[in-house]
Amino acid sequence: MHIFFSICILALGIGLFDLLGKAFCIRCRFHPVVPERICIGFFLYFALFQIVAEVMILTKQKLHVLGISWLVLLCLLVAAAGIMVYRNTQKAPAIEARPSRAVRLLFALMTVAVLCECASAVLMQRNIGWDFAYYIGNMMTSVETDTMYLYDGSSGLLRSHLELRYALSSFYMNTAWISQMTGISALVLQKYMAGVLCVLLTNAVVYSFAMEVFQRDKKKTAILVTITVLLTICWDVYDTAAQFLMLRNYEAKAYCANVVLPMVCYLLYRIWKNSKDRKTWAELFLVSFASVAVSMSSLVLVPALIAIMLLAHLIVERRWDSALMIRGMLCLMPNVCYFAVYFASTKGWLIVEV
């Protein structure tokens, strides 16, 4: 029964991401493909959730306080987004031509392939090491004690201070508050809801990237996504991002490797083609802002990718582009600020005592 309710929450979450993504796209006046819009909504959700959650984590508030506060704010966000989308639908919508039979067939095969990948990812979750025990333990302990990161996830003992290596990201507390509100086990929610969501978002990024590269050729895009899914399932090498997706998709690291970093690469590709596109820069800033909320592994990796692109652009163009550099630096700022806080904690300059 818990698995069934987890599937319902997953479907509700995807609908929520789509709504938030629509509102963001209307505000920024651009029209991405539906999978990219859902990804935008996902990052927007965690960008906003991080603001609320971090304040409560660092001030050592109860988990239920976070849950109630975020639920109220989320209802307001959904209402505002719904009004914005409704008003936009009153305008004359663009009518798209119905895809050919070949395209529909390829999309059907792609859908089947993605569903098989989701099933494979669930069945292949055989990793039960220290990481599994610690992350799941953190969430379940938070639910049981109505706290956030105050108790050690593996031993269950009260910490002497907040471990900012984990507490600076609100990813696992998102599952914890849902678990507390619904009564569904955090273990089930994380393994099945978050795990399958990771697979779906990964394919959404691949689809968006392919549509950009192939200039919105749906036939080539569907073929590429299907091939990518087959390679992911069959390429049984542990050190690849694909196998991390199949084995440990419920972890924040898997989201970093398969959703965050590919999304950043996709946006940097678009910026490379057109560095003056403010819509892409706005999307990149959103992803950068939400990257640490999704995974602490993004702390250095995301700014490294952006810095490499800026440096490569400088070398290739052989000129200083002030607008490009300023926008790039702005996208770097969220992770730089997080890194400064984390670095201060490692040096003992910033200690949040329990």
From TrEMBL:
Looking at the UniProt entry, the stretches that span the membrane are: 41-58, 65-85, 105-124, 192-210, 222-246, 252-272, 284-312, 324-344
Q: What superkingdom does the record give?
A: Bacteria
Q: What organism does the UniProt record list as the source?
A: Eubacterium plexicaudatum ASF492
Instruction: Give any Pfam family that matches.
Output: DUF6077
Query: Which keywords, in A-to-Z order, does the entry hold?
Result: Membrane, Transmembrane, Transmembrane helix
| Signal peptide per UniProt | none
What protein does this entry describe? Glycosyltransferase RgtA/B/C/D-like domain-containing protein
InterPro entries assigned to the protein according to its UniProt record, in alphabetical order: DUF6077
Instruction: Decide whether keyword Transmembrane helix is in the record.
Output: yes
